[in-house]
Amino acid sequence: MIWRRFLLTALIFFNIFLLYNLIWSDNGVFAYLELKSRHEQLKQRLGAVNDKSLDLSQEIRWLKTDKAFTEKMARAQMNYLKDSEILYQFPKDPPAAKEPERDKEGKRADAQ
């Protein structure tokens, strides 16, 4: 009878230990779910990189074979011009209107 109780107690503690390892250990359920989520993110990132690689490979083939495409890319990326063309470049952000220095001095004097 005592051996049965001892065996039952040992088995209960062993089951608790296994349950703890199943859920909260480094190889448990939570770690598995985190790794599964990371795997999905990496698969999506790999798909995007593969798509970009395919686009770049196609662009390389066009640059090697198509003179019109080569000219178009050189003109677009390096601002190359034909003899009869004029290039106008505009700033992306217009400069902010500056106050004259004397107005700033007057405001400082008024504040003091």
Structure write-up:
This protein has 112 residues and is mainly alpha-helical. It has a domain at 26-87. It is built from four helices and no strands. It has helices at 2-24, 29-65, 67-78, 101-111. The protein starts with a helix and ends with a helix. The mean pLDDT is 85.
Beta fraction of the residues?
under 5%
Tally of strands: 0
Gyration radius over CA: 35 Å
Percent helix: over 70%
Which spans of ≥5 residues are poorly predicted at pLDDT below 50?
none
Largest sheet: none
Overall pLDDT level: 85
Q: Ends: how far apart?
A: 95 Å
Summed up, the helix count is: 4
The best one-word shape is: elongated
> What's the SSE pattern?
HHHH
Computed structural class = mainly alpha
Short characterization:
With 112 residues, the protein is an all-alpha fold. The protein contains four helices and no strands.
Write the layout of secondary structure elements.
Blueprint: H1 2-24, H2 29-65, H3 67-78, H4 101-111
Features:
112 residues; mainly alpha
